[in-house]
Amino acid sequence: MSPAAPARADPGPADPARVDTARPDAIERVHDRWRRLRPDLDVSPLLVVGRVTRLGRLIQRRSDELLRDVGLGRADFDVLAALVRHDAPLTPTALADETLLSAPAVTKRLRVLLDAGLVAREANPADGRGWLVVPTEPGRRRLAEALDVQVAAEAAMIAGLDGDERDALLRGLPALLRELEG
Fold first, then answer.
1. What span, in angstroms and rounded, lies between the C-alpha atoms of 104 and 180?
2. Is the separation of the CB atoms in 119 and 101 below 8 Å?
3. How far apart are CA 143 and CA 81, in angstroms?
4. Is the confidence at residue 59, as pLDDT, over 50?
5. What is the Cα–Cα distance from 17 to 27, expressed in whole angstroms?
6. Residue 159 has pLDDT above 60, yes or no
7. Mean pLDDT on 28-47
């Protein structure tokens, strides 16, 4: 006779963040494991923050794959898009603030974009030691092509959501973003 399997901890009351109990997502599995390991700790924030983080990484990965076909990575796209959106020269520091990339990451991306002829540097009249970055015409054309690809991919990513689900995200995500940017 084999020893009895250890009893599993009761997961507790149904969690409102759990939509499909038959098919738990990766974050639900992480949450449930931590809940069993640390019953003294409220790990429910993982259900929101963990999902947002995982979604961000999945979107980043898909974006990198799609944008590779137009010769950009997602970080390159973000830097180039920031420059085109602002329609004014930006400092590398302003680009880091706009894109939430680290200063070294912006420097690396700018080196790649400069070498590809997609951006240009010009002297910063307000800072004799600094410089400004501007998109070149080839950079603007590349961004236009990439933007078409990226927006279509993002539309496909959310196509499976019904109207109520989209509305809930459109209400909840901005509130969370404002809280964290606050």
1. 23
2. no
3. 7
4. yes
5. 11
6. yes
7. 96
Contact yes or no for 132/121 (Cβ under 8 A): yes
Name 63's Cβ contacts closer than 8 Å, sequence gap at least 6. Answer: 74, 77, 150, 153
Q: What is the DSSP letter of 116?
A: T
Tell me how far apart the alpha carbons of residues 54 and 77 are, in angstroms, rounded to a whole number. Answer: 20
Strands 119-124 and 127-135 turn out to be: antiparallel
pLDDT tens by residue, 93-143: 999 999 999 999 999 999 999 999 999 999 999 888 889 999 999 999 999
pTM of the model: 0.79
User: In the beta sheet, which residues pair with residue 119?
Assistant: 135
At 128, which helix (H) or strand (E)? strand 127-135
User: Tokens standing for 29?
Assistant: 């599995």
What is the SS3 assignment for 44-74?
CHHHHHHHHHHHHHHHHHHHHHHHHCCCCCH
Q: Specify the DSSP class assigned to residue 76.
A: H
Cα separation, 58 vs 98, whole angstroms: 21
